[in-house]
């Protein structure tokens, strides 16, 4: 076998070529032909493969959990392309760890199949009906749970209406889950656990609400059966995983692997899981996951410091055409803005967790965000701000207002988002649509240029915050300054203020 330094022609990834990979690339030591499925994962993107699939792979390397292999699934047309690529390489994935001290790679094999992606989701429903499937997990993004302005299930959404009216041919992952639960009940099979792996506070409760709300609208007796028999544990997931582009493909080829969907990631992972599984689970704690009955504090720390921190950085970075999060941390004003807002307006509303104080976690996040090898683009991080600002930042803002604390930096953060949604950077380049609500956001952003309150009057996002004078007045002042003097001037004005 070759080493990385001797590579001339990269090896196409497959079961048959595992032994031909460079010596210093780790690979499965277990017999993949003997793996049997236990998990269907919906929304199989980079994060899942770098995180949940990696934990399972580590168990399999220890000779455990060989009956818990993953079957991938998706409900969007784009998922079919991922299916085709992964099946062509036997569902193997190259994980490339990007650490400032060096690069390393391993091939993981915990996924063994990918369900056909079809309208009506018949193959997905059939896969979830298999009694061997005991967990259905998902990463469908924070905005994928059909929540209304009050955080409940939006029963008027066209996708949800479709699934209520046509429960046998659902459009959504949740409709497919409800159909599978119905079939399992009718066949006498036990329920599966629904496991949300998205960045939502109380993510298990959110998934439970969506599934039960949809089921109750279709068949109340079925909803009662799901409520009695299924569980939806909360979890906190953490690993920075950039999108894959040409640079990542080149990195894989340079290592010696022709992988069409490699994944790069940082050298940090954390998974905190509520131990609440109705039909068994792999022993994840054996490979570093934390199993607990109280996930909330871990969730809050991560969402408020890491996820909210991403939004604090990304909108300023987009406006100033700073390409990556690491570059934002090198930018004097953006980095100082991040530190000041976090220290004064975020950390005070974060509780400690066992072994980690909030200020220590912030120091860890600063190191992780500053990793220059992680090309996590500001565009990716700024995507779907309508879900991420409402889910990550506004709860902190409400806590600060309730406590009578400062909200000046959080108001500036929201003003930067409003300015970004106008669709142009300060150098005049266009910001391409980057949110499911982009047309309405852009309309409100352009109206807010002359009347800032037009932005806060988006009640589906801000609720009653427009009527909170401590916040609204500061937002209005900051947005006016950004439009008149520019982003850097606004950042420096904020930084010049004393604590």
Description:
By secondary structure, the protein is α/β, with parallel strands linked by helices. 46% of the residues lie in helices and 11% in strands. The protein has 21 helices and 13 strands. It has helices at residues 46-50, 52-61, 77-87, 122-129, 158-165, 173-187, 203-218, 220-229, 246-255, 296-319, 325-330, 332-346, 358-369, 378-382, 385-403, 408-420, 438-448, 453-456, 459-462, 469-485, 487-495, and strands at residues 11-12, 37-42, 69-73, 93-99, 102-108, 111-114, 135-138, 193-196, 235-238, 257-258, 263-265, 270-274, 290-292. The strands form 4 sheets. Strands 6-3-2-7-8 form a 5-stranded parallel beta sheet, with helices on both faces. It has a 3-stranded mixed beta sheet with strand order 5-4-11, sandwiched between helices. Helix 12 (332-346) packs across helix 21 (487-495) and helix 16 (408-420) packs across helix 20. The protein is globular, with a radius of gyration of 23 Å. It starts with 10 loop residues before the first strand and ends with a helix. The relative contact order is 0.10. GO terms for molecular function: oxidoreductase activity, acting on the CH-OH group of donors, NAD or NADP as acceptor. This is Mannitol 2-dehydrogenase.
């Amino acid at each position: 076998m070759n080493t990385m330094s001797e590579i001339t022609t990269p090896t196409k990834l497959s079961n048959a070529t595992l032994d031909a990979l460079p010596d210093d690339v780790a690979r499965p030591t277990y017999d993949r032909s003997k793996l049997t499925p236990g998990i269907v994962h919906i929304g199989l993107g980079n994060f899942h493969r770098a995180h949940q699939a990696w934990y399972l792979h580590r168990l399999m390397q220890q000779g455990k959990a060989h009956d818990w292999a993953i079957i991938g699934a998706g409900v969007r047309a784009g998922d079919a392309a991922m299916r085709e690529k992964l099946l062509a390489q036997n569902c193997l994935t190259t994980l490339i760890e990007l650490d400032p001290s060096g690069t390393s790679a391993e091939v993981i094999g915990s996924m063994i199949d990918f369900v056909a992606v079809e309208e009506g989701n018949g193959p997905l429903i059939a896969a979830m009906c298999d009694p061997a499937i005991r967990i259905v997990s998902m990463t469908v993004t924070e905005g994928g749970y059909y929540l209304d302005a009050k955080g409940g299930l939006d029963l008027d959404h066209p996708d949800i209406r479709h699934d209520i009216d046509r429960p046998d041919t659902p459009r959504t992952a949740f409709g497919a889950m409800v159909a599978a639960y119905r079939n399992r009940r009718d066949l006498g099979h036990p329920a599966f656990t629904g496991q949300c792996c998205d960045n939502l506070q109380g993510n298990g409760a959110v998934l439970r609400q969506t599934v039960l709300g949809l089921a109750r609208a279709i068949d109340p007796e079925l909803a009662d059966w799901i409520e009695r028999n299924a569980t939806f544990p909360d979890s906190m997931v953490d690993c920075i995983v950039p999108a894959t582009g040409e640079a990542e493909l080149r990195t894989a080829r340079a290592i010696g692997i022709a992988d069409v969907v490699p994944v790069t990631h940082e050298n940090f992972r954390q998974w905190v899981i509520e131990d609440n599984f109705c039909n068994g689970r792999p022993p994840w704690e054996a490979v570093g996951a934390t199993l607990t009955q109280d996930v909330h504090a871990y969730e809050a720390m991560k969402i408020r410091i890491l996820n909210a921190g991403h939004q604090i950085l990304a909108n300023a970075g987009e406006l100033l055409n700073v390409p990556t999060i690491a570059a934002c941390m090198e930018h004097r004003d953006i980095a100082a803005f991040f530190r000041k807002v976090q220290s004064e307006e975020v950390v005070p509303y974060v509780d400690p967790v066992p072994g980690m104080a909030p200020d220590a976690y912030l120091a860890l996040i600063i190191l992780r965000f500053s990793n220059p090898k992680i090309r996590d683009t500001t565009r990716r991080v700024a995507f779907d701000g309508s879900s991420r600002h409402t889910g990550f930042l506004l709860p902190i803002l409400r806590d600060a207002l309730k406590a009578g604390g400062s909200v000046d930096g959080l108001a500036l953060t929201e003003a930067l988002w409003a300015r970004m949604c106008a669709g142009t950077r300060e150098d005049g380049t266009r910001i391409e649509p980057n949110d499911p609500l982009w047309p309405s956001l852009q309309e409100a952003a352009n109206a807010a240029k002359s009347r800032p309150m037009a932005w806060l009057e988006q009640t589906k996002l801000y609720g009653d915050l427009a009527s909170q004078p401590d916040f609204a007045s500061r937002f209005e002042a900051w947005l006016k300054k950004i439009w008149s003097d520019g982003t850097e001037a606004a950042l420096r004005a904020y930084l010049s203020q004393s604590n």
